[in-house]
Amino acid sequence: MAMQAENVDTGWRRSSHCEPLNCVETTVTRGRVLVRDSGGPGTAVLGFAYGAWREFVTLASTPRGERIS
Is 51:35 a contact under the CB 8 Å cutoff? Predict the structure, then answer.
């Protein structure tokens, strides 16, 4: 789900693995995890259900050789 950033609460957290122009920010609001490009905070925001976000983070942080299909 995409929404405009100006309609979203503040409290954005920046990834600890950021590069100067290559980063995402997240916030939790209204039962969803919201994600945006830190280089364009006025652009669209993606929203994910908690479970979907948790699965993504788990998969992204698991080394490729240890992933179970």
Answer: no
| pLDDT tens per residue, range 16-63 | 878 877 888 899 988 899 998 888 778 889 999 999 999 998 988 888
3-state secondary structure the chain: CEEEHHHCCCCCEECCCCECCECEEEEEECCEEEEEECCCCCCEEEEEEHHHHHHHHHHHHCCHHHCCC
**Predicted local distance difference test score (pLDDT) of residue 4:** 46
Distance CA 34, CA 45 (A): 6
